[in-house]
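Dear support,

I submitted the protein below through the web form. The confirmation email said the job was done, but the results page showed an empty box. After a refresh the structure appeared. I'm attaching both so you can tell me whether what I see now is the final result or a partial one.
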Amino acid sequence: MKGFTASLWPIRYKPFPDELLSSWLVRLAHGHGLKVQTFCNLIFGNRNQVWNRDVDRFGPEWLVRELSVRTGTPMDVAYATTLRSYEGRLYAKFRASGTLPWLQTLKVYHRTREGFGLQYCGACLAEDATPHFRKAWRVSFNTICVKHDRMLHDRCPQCGCAIMFHRVEMGRGSAFDALSMTTACHACGFNLSESPSEPITSYDLQASAWHAKLCNSLGQSADQAIAQIDLDAMRVMHQLTAILLSRYKTVSLRDHACQQLGIEVPVLLSGRVSIETRPLAERHHLMQLVAWLWVDMEPRLHAAWRSRAVRYNHLCKDFEDPPIWYVRIVEKFSNWRNR
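What the results page shows now:
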């Protein structure tokens, strides 16, 4: 394996726009005719384990730098494949433990995943000349494919298993015998590019248009997307999801919003489950409600407050340093006598 000791590798694939680090790494391994684990052991050694944690979230510098140097990829381009690159856009500050706002959790247990944190669009995979997974598919509010006007999937439609493309080669001989990493479920072999097309569920046309614009902005640069993906906006949106999921008996904002929209209130997972851990259908439901509140926030929150669906103190509960514009809206509901 002399090629691996040289400065540049024989195969030097560059990451596609918005490609995930893990997707890029698997393509490089298969490009060299090696299984993913064999490739990683050769390059990084047994001490630096890659797949026993969420590699896209942590994006360790030693891994990103090695891929940058060995493929001749600029460091900033290599770093952009990690979920850390969303720092300052989706969440304020990276932390190693706990849930990060708007990033889907994988629930990594050893080398398997118990969560459904990686989504995909079958139509995108089908039309890719080289199928690959997008970074935007790890974002909680991104539940739709704007390009193909369809819902995303967060699991295999045939067997229901989480998507783990890095394990598709397990038990299948050499890497050349492995199924394509993005066209097969690792568990049952179902062709993910043939996943059924599910129409986008919409509660309100204006809200759905706003949500689609928000999802589409993930594929844009920070400067291009600033109008839709401002950090303060992300924080307020996250606060609204927390209120919609509140288990307090005095908070019924979700019921109120569903009533105003004329839809049934779906049953969600019980317990203290954040949006980052919920299945796609529940996240899409919540984002439709968030979008409906957002496009006309002050009067709609005011109506909810007047109907006693939410109290003033809950609107800023556990919300550290909220933006001034949000505080000004909420302060109008501070006097309960005005109801």
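Response: this is the final, complete result; the empty box was a page-load delay. The chain has a mean pLDDT of 90.
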